[in-house]
Design goal:
Elements (H helix, E strand, L loop, with lengths): L4 E5 L3 H12 L3 E6 L4 H4 L14 E4 L1 H8 L4 H7 L5 E5 L5 E6 H8 L4 E4 H10 L6 E3 L2 E6 L10 E7 L7 E4 L1 E4 L6 H6 L7 E13 L7 E6 L2 E7 L4 E8 L11 H9 L6 H7 L6 E7 L8 E2 L2 E3 L14 H15 L6 H29 L5 H17 L3 H4 L32
Parallel strand pairs: 1-2, 1-11, 2-7, 4-13, 11-18
Antiparallel strand pairs: 3-6, 4-5, 8-9, 9-10, 12-15, 12-16, 13-14, 14-15, 17-18
Length: 428
């Protein structure tokens, strides 16, 4: 039987996971990542070395279980530093609620882990076959192809590459994993509305830990929030959001903008801002899906992650849902499967679930944009009262999400992170 071929456009978390999952299913895979700059892809061109800039990513038990099907769950869990307590606070420091990963294990069968995004990308890229990842290779979809018996293959043109542009490739399957501004999505669904501004902008950076210890926390204030999470190498991942008009940029620099907005908040917020390199503070407008797409596939093209269901970061599920997408796609696309039926089943499984997560994340995101003092006081009172009655308040939003399990055996959730004698070791 001829080996089926797949081209993945986009070398982010979803794209690399899809490439690895398809490779494990017997596909010949090529990943085309347009960015040669290390910080964008998480790996240095031609290597799998992690880049030390960027931001963190939360991986809930649902994503860990998906990665377990690829033998990567333990490696991801080993990256995590934050496995302890977390707090929900107000800008003055008052604690509204507290949770810990023991509660996540009880509720979802596994912990929430936070890793450095670049290290996760490097882990995924390092498991691909040599030569499968081509960086600096921008590509466009020329023809989605026809998945029916004897149908034409999909065609992709490389528009920029270190060794020249213009090369045209054909494949049995194309995976569009090219992010929130996906050109692949526009090519297959040209009339579909673009992602819309969610009403707030996000800042992210990584710095050394301050001298005084700090607990992982998220702090909600008028019109925005601040989050602090330890990383495994002793550094701190910090993020913030604020309800501001889209497209803005600080007149001086983004660190100064953070100082203006959050510099009077409780420890360790001012210290973390002061420690940040202004050039390393990332600022991005947050966008979310404006409407459900007609499908997650067309022809021989499948879309996943932010390319098809962009969501606000309030549930920490953007990367998790992309990982789920990738694993489900590969599970359906067996080497001898009817591709048209496999892609239809991929849409059937993924579209309603991911759009539900989109809506749930957006509802929480709207709460963070409240500005008036009475509204913020009411919000804090409700959170504090609910936390007293329901200690796992911060985890309730993930019910029906973090407890997801992929088809087939894994060894993360059912044993709460412990492997049974009948389950394989990671590299076996």
């Amino acid at each position: 039987m001829r080996q089926r071929t797949a081209i993945v456009i986009g070398g982010g978390i979803g794209g690399l996971t899809a490439a690895l999952a398809l490779d494990r299913r017997g596909w010949s895979v090529t990943v085309l990542e347009r960015t040669a700059a290390p910080a964008a892809s998480g790996v240095r061109a031609g290597t799998a070395r992690p880049v030390r800039s960027g931001a963190g990513i939360a991986l809930a038990p649902n994503a860990q279980r998906a990665l377990d099907t690829l033998g990567l769950g333990d490696a991801v869990r080993a990256m995590a530093a934050w496995q302890g307590a977390g707090e929900l606070r107000l800008p003055g420091g008052r604690r509204l609620a507290r949770t810990d990963n023991a509660a996540a294990v009880r509720r979802f069968g596994g912990p929430v882990v936070v890793a450095h995004r670049a290290e996760l990308l490097a882990l995924l890229a390092g498991r691909l076959p040599d030569g499968a990842l081509r960086t600096g290779a921008a590509a466009e979809l020329v023809d989605p192809g026809d998945p029916g018996p004897g149908g034409r293959p999909a065609r992709v043109r490389i528009t920029a590459a270190p060794d020249g542009a213009g090369e045209e490739l054909t494949a049995d399957l194309v995976v569009g994993a090219d992010g929130i501004h996906s050109a692949v999505r526009r090519a297959v669904f040209p009339g579909h509305p673009e992602p819309r501004y969610a009403g707030f902008t996000a800042w992210r950076f990584v710095v050394p830990a301050p001298d005084r210890p700090c607990t992982a926390h998220e702090t909600w204030g008028p019109g925005g929030l601040w989050g602090t999470v330890p990383l495994p190498d002793g550094r701190i991942y910090a993020y913030a959001t604020a309800a501001v008009p889209p497209g803005g940029r600080a007149a001086d620099d983004e660190r100064a903008e953070l100082q203006r907005r959050f510099g009077t908040w409780h420890h360790p917020v001012p210290d973390l801002i002061a420690a940040a390199d202004p050039a390393a503070v990332l600022r991005n407008d947050v966008r979310t899906a404006a409407a459900p797409p007609p499908a997650f596939h067309r022809g021989r093209v499948a879309l996943l992650g932010d390319a098809v269901h962009p969501m606000t970061p309030n549930l920490g599920q953007g990367g998790c849902q992309a990982v789920e997408d990738a694993v489900v796609l590969a599970q359906q696309a067996a080497p001898d499967a009817d591709l048209a039926a496999a892609l239809a089943e991929f849409t059937r499984q993924r579209l309603p679930r991911t759009m539900d997560v989109v809506r749930r994340a957006e509802r929480i995101g709207r709460l963070t944009t409240w500005r008036s003092r009475p509204a913020c006081a009411l919000r804090a009172a409700l959170m504090a009262a609910t936390a007293r009655l329901t200690p796992d308040l911060a985890l309730r939003a993930l019910d029906g999400i973090a407890d997801w399990r992929p088809e087939g055996p894994t060894y993360a959730a059912g044993t709460r992170g412990t492997r049974t004698a009948a389950q394989p070791k990671e590299h076996e």
